[in-house]
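Usage

Read records sequentially. Each one opens with the input sequence:
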Amino acid sequence: MKTTAPNFNKQLISSSKTRWLIVLVALSLILTMSVATADTSKKKLSDVQNLTVTPSNGSLKLTWNLVTGADNYTVRWGTNGQYSNYSNNRSAADNPRTNKYTITGLKNGKQYNISIAARDTTNKSIKGNYTNPTLATPVAPVTTTTLAPTTTTTTIAPTTTTTLPLVNSFIDNFDGSAVNTANWKAYYNNYGSANHELQCLTPNNLTVSNGTLKIFGKRETVTCSKWGTYNFTSGFLGSREVGKYYPRYGTFQMRAKLPHGNANWPGFWLRHRNGATATNGAEVDIMEYFHPQLPGKTTSTLHLAGKKNTYKKSTFFETPTTQPGWHTWAVTISPVGNAVKFQFLIDGNDAGSYMDQNASAWNTSAPADGTWDMAVNMSIGGDWVGNPDGDISKLGNGQCAQANCATTGIMQTVFPVQYEVDYVRYTPLS
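and closes with the structure output:
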């Protein structure tokens, strides 16, 4: 019986072919998965094109081409090749979602570098490259002169002025020889007594000359209307009493010299039409100077929807001196989605910001074109600044003005005290 031996060579070849086939199939699957993965991976957005900058008074207006796939854009700016400011200061919610953005609170005559990048926060924060720096300089206002009411000479204000060609804009340069009663009411009362302030407010403590408003604090004994006798006087201008209210959004600004002294309390602030303490009201303290507490620093505070001190920050403006200098204080109030942003500025520089995420309680309870009034005043003494004849280390409520009742940097009030204002402005959002 003949037996046929197995052909091992054929079996080896067949087995080898099978193994190679398996390897090829596996490689094919890996390549297929790689391609699929590549198709779904992040793709960088295109760079912003045609960024243009239009300079204006204290601001730069930006426009650019929309980028496909972007849902917002990050704008950054600064000076000397550095970037110290970003539109998304707190979160991407602050970024512009269109191809327009205005940078405000800038210094006229100073060159800024601007750059912008497209973003897509809906798809794992994909973004494009920042553009090359674009250089631009805000332009100073156009200088004008104003004829004095009774002479043929011209009155030159300490700074240049401009006529703002914007709807609902307002500026009082305090030209002429008296307070403009169409803009302001001079108080004659003891407003502030709830803070145990010591002054009677009178129209006699307000003068206008040489292009500025002067509010004087004096040591004098007066009968304060129906409120009795007071030993100090000062001044207060408010727009509320003449029916002058300003829009909900925009920039409110003042240029002034502040007196340094332990019992002086100058202020510049906005009051909601419904009042400061109401749950549908608010108060914006753009500038308050509590000298004995923080010599050389002014404080910005928000009281929103009946809640006190919703936001509060103090910022240095000047070393205490008997010869104070000119400075500007401002706040820009703007909508950001359903929130409202407050951006405070001193001399055009960032002095703090706050995003009110629950703004509906106050920002829908008054007309959009008439939400705020403006107030400029100076108090003498009280709970927060002390007594002009008392211990300079103590406040009017008896507490220490500074830690351990130190007196570092505190100056004694010397009467008469002068709070001088160059201008007050309101500028709507562009």
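Summary fields computed downstream for this record:
- Helices lie at 8-40, 360-363.
- The two ends are 108 Å apart (CA to CA).
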